[in-house]
Design a protein that fits this description.
The chain is mainly α. It has helices at residues 3-31, 36-69. The protein has 2 helices and no strands. Helix 1 packs antiparallel against helix 2.
């Protein structure tokens, strides 16, 4: 897999995770006062996905640096 291919995959993963987090946060807001255990679990899941997003952003930055160093 080339660096460009890997970068494309990371960008796709980032877009998918961002959409999932946005959807989760919207669901939490729409739930109102319901089962606090479920709400807490959904918040935890969204927070975990945001951690993955941060990791992928770091990976993306690394790949972009690598692309800048590659000849041609």
């Amino acid at each position: 897999m080339t660096t460009k291919d890997e970068l494309r995959d990371v960008e796709e993963d980032l877009a998918r995770l961002r959409a999932e987090v946005k959807d989760l946060r919207a669901q939490i807001g729409d739930m109102g006062a319901t089962d606090q255990v479920e709400v807490s679990a959904m918040i935890g899941q969204a927070d975990e996905q945001e951690g993955l997003i941060a990791d992928l952003e770091g990976r993306r930055d690394e790949l972009l640096r690598r692309l800048g160093e590659e000849p041609g």
